[in-house]
Amino acid sequence: MLSLFLILSCGKSANKKTVSKSESLKEIVDSSFYFRSNIKHAKGFTIEIREGYKEISVLDPWNKGQVFQKYYLVPRGKEKSSSIPTDGQIIEVPVRSIAALSSTQIGILNFLGVLDKVVAVSLPDRVYNGKLSKRVESGKVIGVGHGATLDFERILDLSPELVMVAGFMKISNDETKLINAGLPVAFNIEWMESSPLARAEWAKFIAVFFNMEQRADDLFSELENRYSSIKSKIKEVEDKPDVISGYHYKGVWYMPGGQSYLAQLLRDAKGEYCWFSDSTQGSIPLSFEVVLEKQSGAKIWFGPAHCQSLKEMKDLDERYTLFQAYKDGQVYSVTKRTNENGANDYYESGVICPDLLLKDVAKVLHPELFLDHDLFFYQKLD
């Protein structure tokens, strides 16, 4: 009798332990879905927790006060609430596969640790990340093109649970076709943010589709601290070298607007920039003549296309030699991390490494303060 009692007691105890573990797992899943992100810098999206779902709004930077696209996220496997509005896409999360059709998304997905969920990219031969490149080579990740070359049928065959694209002005016909075909399409408009930290904070937007917001918040806080630490080191700098940015392309010089993230990067690095007073968030289209008139005397030049030498710049446009920065050999390009296929890590990791970008720019502008730092994304052209 005593033996039987002990056996039954152990059975009940084990049963309780199993139930407790199951309940604990359920609590973890629920808490990850209902975690509330703390959005501090980004202005381009909002996340609201509702009863039984999350409401995500991507805001339209070209039409203030308007919503570019809405998403209603529901926990995977749970019954959908009848109160979910019908003006947006309904998506079960966490998503288990994603077509990442912009390079910046690759950097953020790697940052979050979910690069293994990628099943499609736009240009497979231009992937810099080593792990993702191996998956491309093994056939686990497929190239589906982008823009006019987007392979609609191939994406449909893959049926990713999320297609993420860069948003531009308005939703394209191909993007509308994907949505109408039942594929959730998420628009990432981080490039229109007004600061490098705001741009990087779009990691929280991507994280929401994977129930990884708490991880994104923790990682972003560490990133923010690193950025602030670099800013504090140059806080008292008084000498601010005059800077020029960008290059002339097909008759237009697209200069970073005064409210763009690139302009803010120059502010934070204590540079002087002719267009700080401009109110544009994206780029300002200028003629070569206007740029030459206003900035021919600039001391330092950042971002002259993909050039890797001064000669290459001269071959593109001999008028570049008229700028003082060119004459002095003070020209820097984000081409240091470029592989043999032409893939450039700046376009993947730059978005999520604003601290390294700031340190690079500050090293160029104030080298005496960063003697131990080797340029990471930028390189000086010879």
What this model shows, in words?
With 382 residues, this protein is of the alpha/beta class. The protein has 14 helices and 17 strands. A five-stranded parallel sheet has the order 7-6-5-8-9. It has a five-stranded mixed sheet with strand order 13-10-15-16-17. A four-stranded mixed sheet has the order 1-2-3-4. Strand 11 (248-249) and strand 12 form a beta hairpin. Helix 8 (213-233) packs parallel to helix 14 (354-365). The longest helix has 33 residues, at 2-34. The model is unreliable at 1-29 (pLDDT under 50).
Could you list some keywords that capture this structure?
alpha/beta, 382 residues, 17 strands, five-stranded parallel beta sheet
Describe the structure concisely for a colleague.
This protein has 14 helices and 17 strands. Helix 5 links the parallel strand 8 and strand 9.
Uncertain residue segments: 1-29
Individual helix count: 14
Q: Which oligomeric form is depicted?
A: single chain
Strand-residue fraction?
15-25%
Mean pLDDT: 89
Topology overview:
Layout: H1 2-34, E1 45-49, E2 54-59, E3 67-75, E4 89-93, E5 98-100, H2 103-112, E6 118-121, H3 130-137, E7 142-143, H4 152-158, E8 162-166, H5 173-180, E9 185-188, H6 196-200, H7 203-207, H8 213-233, E10 242-245, E11 248-249, E12 252-256, H9 261-268, E13 272-273, E14 283-286, H10 288-295, E15 300-302, H11 310-316, H12 324-327, E16 331-333, H13 346-349, H14 354-365, E17 379-380
Parallel strand pairs: 3-4, 5-6, 5-8, 6-7, 8-9, 10-13, 10-15, 15-16
Antiparallel strand pairs: 1-2, 2-3, 11-12, 12-14, 16-17
Helix pairs in contact: 8-14
